[in-house]
């Protein structure tokens, strides 16, 4: 109530000055921007009287009809409009949230409207007495007590119970937040460079001049905190065998690294963000104070919840906002696309990516051809496999592919009653078409299975070849089955592949790639992906992207080194009589090689006036003379440019001119 009183007083004080023009107010505060930001968000309250606002002409009354505004044009980025009619018997009030489509999409506006309605219902709608905090209690509570989450989201969270997992010892998968920070560090920064400190969280404290701390007692308190909070002694490791990011708790007794360093009158706590957030500091300081005073912390290693337990339970918690099934169904609904056609288009694009850009793809699809009413009540086999050929445009977007597949599949379904054998009989040269090996199936589960008052649920079943071998049988080389359950409004995907062609690891990877592609296409976060060409959409997994990033990171820091001719002179002084260069029966020691190099260097300097940086071309067969020439050019500070004696003379002349070598032409001719 305190906040509403503040708003009320503020409003009354402002209303008293509403006669001031807005332009004049902006000039008084020297507002330099042409469009003030607050002008884009508006609040309006309209009071309407049905008795006085009726239009009457010569005793003929006109009833007002609401006029719907154009959906694509709004005056403001966001506007909340309240509409109140106090004259009716039961006073009514309504509100409308109007948003610009340039800033918000339709789904976001609908979500905001539901959240605002939920916020009002918490304040003003009476609930049953079984609820601990009623709506009128919330009116007097701090506004932070109000929830912005819709009802279905808290229900899922309430159903999730975080508890100690006894079967999990000291290792488990990294949390979603940890994975984000870890991958971000390795993609944005060079792993070979010194430790990246951008995710470090340092906290600096100074001991008050009149206070003292016992370092022994403080060290003991910090040791107790490390014992209690295992996340502070956890390592994040990428497991190359499983291609997963894991967190591993380090045994405190085996932890030999120096954990604490004390500086006079200063305390510095430095945490890595992958294991620590800002609210954790409050917990840390509370436990530090308690451990320092009492020299103990309550710890129960059998029941206390760990961050590792939270991570495992978090990954099993249902998340409505990231439900791929919901996003897939929502995309089909908003774009008026049949689920079967949308799934088929996604399958075509996935095969396009798997086959490295094959644009002419033909697959088989099972159709249930009960095309006559009299057949719909008879048990039997009415299934027919029809070929669906799709010629993909690599530069087209996914939405364009969906439209093409929708038209193509609709036309093919019209002739699905033609038996496949009749079609194949017209092509006698085709004994077994390849499209029979790659198939697509779409199954709709329409309602619950009931026998009397009992409900049955289906269980996935696989066929085993024999009892000794756990090996499944697939009818096709590769088939994608989409199951859509109307009861729970959810779809699932199953990929079956022949183990004669694929091993289990490959099938699992293909399944992960298909899931990753669907996520990129249909989640609201990645709307931009739908407008990309299908060639640009990637099916690489996150760990593969990290691998590519590390492979392409070829930058290497080389230490500063001396020049080649300096190293050559050093070798001459160290090993003057050793063989420096050898070819067939010819050889030169370091001393002999230096002598010839010096002689040629003097020629270049005195006769050809070679200066530092000049380009010197040399056209010599592989020989001792070639080595002498290279070292001589480098010795005088020139840039060595090799020419091949296999090239025609005219080409050699052109190359010499392109190098703009002043002495190269003459030196090249003499070399010949």
Automatic annotation (TrEMBL):
Gene Ontology cellular-component annotations: cytosol
Pfam families: AMP-binding, Condensation
A GO biological process held by the record: secondary metabolite biosynthetic process
Top-rank taxon: Eukaryota
Ranges of residues in domain AMP-dependent synthetase/ligase: 571-661
Keywords tagged on the record: Phosphopantetheine, Phosphoprotein
UniProt keyword Oxidoreductase, yes or no: no
One term of GO molecular function: catalytic activity
Cited InterPro entries: AMP-dep_synth/lig_dom, CAT-like_dom_sf, Condensation_dom
Chain ranges of the Condensation domain: 332-526
Keyword Metal-binding: no
PANTHER family cross-referenced by the UniProt entry: FATTY ACID SYNTHASE, NONRIBOSOMAL PEPTIDE SYNTHETASE
The protein's name: Uncharacterized protein
Source species: Adineta steineri
């Amino acid at each position: 109530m305190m906040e509403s009183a503040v708003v009320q007083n503020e409003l009354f004080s402002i209303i008293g000055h509403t006669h001031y023009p807005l332009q004049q107010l902006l000039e008084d505060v020297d507002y330099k921007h042409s469009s003030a930001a607050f002008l884009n968000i508006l609040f309006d309250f309209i009071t309407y009287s049905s008795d006085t606002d009726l239009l009457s002409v010569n005793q003929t009354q006109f009833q007002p009809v609401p006029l719907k505004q154009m959906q694509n044009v709004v005056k403001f980025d966001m506007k909340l409009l309240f509409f109140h009619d106090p004259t009716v018997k039961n006073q009514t009030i309504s509100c409308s949230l109007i948003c610009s489509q340039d800033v918000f999409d339709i789904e976001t506006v609908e979500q905001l409207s539901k959240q605002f309605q939920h916020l009002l219902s918490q304040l003003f709608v009476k609930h049953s007495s079984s609820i601990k905090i009623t709506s009128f209690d919330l009116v007097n509570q701090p506004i932070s007590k109000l929830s912005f989450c819709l009802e279905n989201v808290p229900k899922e969270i309430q159903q999730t119970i975080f508890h100690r997992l006894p079967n999990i010892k000291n290792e488990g998968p990294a949390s979603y937040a940890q994975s984000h920070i870890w991958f971000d560090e390795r993609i944005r920064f060079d792993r070979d460079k010194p430790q990246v400190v951008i995710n470090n969280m340092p906290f600096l404290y100074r001991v008050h001049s009149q206070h003292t701390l016992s370092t022994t007692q403080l060290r003991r308190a910090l040791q107790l905190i490390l014992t209690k909070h295992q996340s502070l002694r956890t390592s994040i490791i990428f497991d190359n065998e499983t291609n997963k990011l894991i967190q591993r708790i380090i045994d405190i007794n085996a932890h030999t690294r120096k954990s604490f360093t004390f500086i006079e009158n200063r305390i510095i706590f430095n945490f890595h963000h992958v294991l620590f957030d800002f609210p954790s500091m409050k917990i840390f300081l509370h436990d530090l104070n308690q451990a320092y005073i009492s020299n103990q912390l309550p710890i129960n290693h059998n029941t206390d919840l760990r961050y590792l337990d939270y991570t495992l339970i978090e990954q099993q918690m249902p998340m409505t906002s990231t439900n791929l099934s919901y996003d897939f169904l929502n995309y089909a609904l908003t774009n008026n696309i049949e689920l079967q056609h949308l799934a088929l288009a996604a399958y075509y694009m996935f095969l396009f990516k798997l086959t490295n850009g094959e644009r002419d793809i033909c697959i088989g699809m099972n159709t249930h051809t009960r095309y006559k009413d009299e057949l719909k009540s008879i048990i039997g086999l009415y299934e027919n496999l029809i070929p669906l050929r799709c010629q993909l445009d690599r530069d087209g977007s996914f939405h364009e592919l969906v439209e093409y597949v929708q038209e193509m599949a609709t036309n093919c379904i019209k002739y699905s009653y033609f038996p496949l054998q009749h079609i194949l009989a017209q092509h006698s040269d085709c004994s077994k078409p390849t499209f029979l090996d790659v198939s697509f199936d779409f199954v709709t589960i329409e309602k619950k299975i009931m026998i009397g008052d009992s409900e049955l649920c289906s269980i996935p079943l696989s066929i085993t070849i024999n009892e000794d071998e756990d090996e499944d049988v697939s009818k096709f080389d590769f088939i994608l089955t989409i199951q859509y359950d109307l009861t729970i409004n959810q779809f699932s995907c199953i990929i079956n592949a022949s183990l004669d062609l694929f091993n289990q690891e490959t099938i699992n990877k293909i399944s992960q790639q298909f899931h990753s592609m669907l996520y990129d296409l249909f989640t609201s976060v990645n709307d931009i992906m739908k407008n990309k060409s299908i060639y640009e959409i990637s099916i690489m997994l996150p760990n593969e992207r990290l691998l590519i990033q590390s492979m392409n990171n070829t930058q290497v820091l080389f230490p500063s080194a001396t020049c080649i001719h300096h190293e050559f002179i050093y070798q001459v002084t160290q090993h003057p009589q050793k063989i420096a260069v050898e070819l067939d029966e010819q050889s030169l020691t370091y001393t002999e090689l230096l002598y010839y190099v010096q002689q040629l260097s003097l020629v270049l300097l005195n006769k050809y006036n070679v200066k530092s940086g000049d380009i010197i071309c040399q056209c010599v067969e592989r020989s001792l003379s070639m080595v002498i020439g290279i070292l001589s050019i480098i010795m005088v500070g020139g840039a060595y440019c090799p020419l091949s004696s296999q090239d025609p003379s005219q080409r050699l002349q052109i190359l010499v001119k392109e190098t703009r070598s002043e002495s190269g032409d003459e030196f090249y001719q003499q070399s010949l």
